[in-house]
Write a structure and sequence with these properties.
214 residues; Alpha-Beta Plaits; 9 strands; nine-stranded antiparallel β-sheet; single chain; 2 domains; alpha+beta
Length: 214
């Protein structure tokens, strides 16, 4: 996952550069799949490039198409980039939804930095189990970050939507759902445990740019 901060006033040039690189990549028979998202809220202009790997060994493979198009990155993308932050995260299937999200256009992503990772995972397990028992599957996909800086998140959960209209659909929040199933006393105790386990949390909405994705 690469978070790319675009220079102010350079967004159209950045997009044009990514299109040139993608065209080159496909012409060179590149096979990697990736999504390009634009952050909706927050300071500045931020794009996120995401891709999936089955295992670490895939990082040893040479991407001939990407290598052949590197000059496009240097000449037409990097001049419009302020900074890049690169992260690696691993899925947490035991807490995540089991169905695929077809037609996803938006994702709401919440990030977490903990003071007690074990307690936090216990909270996530409890909440996910409650949602699974009521709705059949958890609502989001959980990830744990592999390394990172002192201010980097340790976990994130991504919830997919087909469009902005989906955000208008009213349904109980996860804490209300948990309370309906387990009662207020148990919910208050779990909420207190969650708060105690967290150093910080934040969230953003991201919109898929299908034209730049592959």
């Amino acid at each position: 996952m690469s978070e790319i901060t675009v220079k102010q006033g350079h967004e159209s040039q950045f997009i044009a550069g990514v299109k040139m690189w993608k065209e080159c990549y496909l012409e060179n028979k590149g096979t990697d799949k990736f999504n390009v998202w634009r952050r909706v809220q927050g300071e500045g202009i931020l794009y996120v490039l995401t891709g999936l790997m089955d295992n670490w060994a895939e990082m040893d493979k040479e991407d001939a198409a990407g290598k052949g198009c590197r000059i496009k990155v240097l000449d037409f993308i990097m001049p419009h980039v302020e900074k890049i932050n690169y992260s690696i995260a691993r899925t947490m299937p035991e807490f995540s939804k089991t169905t695929t999200s077809e037609g996803t256009k938006l994702v709401w992503v919440s990030f977490f930095r903990t003071t007690d990772g074990n307690s936090f995972r216990e909270v996530v397990k409890e909440i996910s189990s409650a949602i699974r028992s009521v709705e059949g599957t958890p609502r989001g996909t959980w990830y744990s970050f592999m390394g990172g800086g002192p201010d980097s998140p340790e976990y994130m959960v991504s919830t997919a939507y087909k469009g902005y209209a989906d955000l208008d659909i009213s349904r109980d929040g996860v804490w209300k759902l948990y309370e309906n199933k387990n009662g207020k006393k148990k919910t208050d105790a779990l909420r207190a445990k969650a708060i105690a386990s967290l150093e910080n949390d934040w969230s953003y909405l991201y919109s898929l740019n299908e034209e730049l994705s592959n």
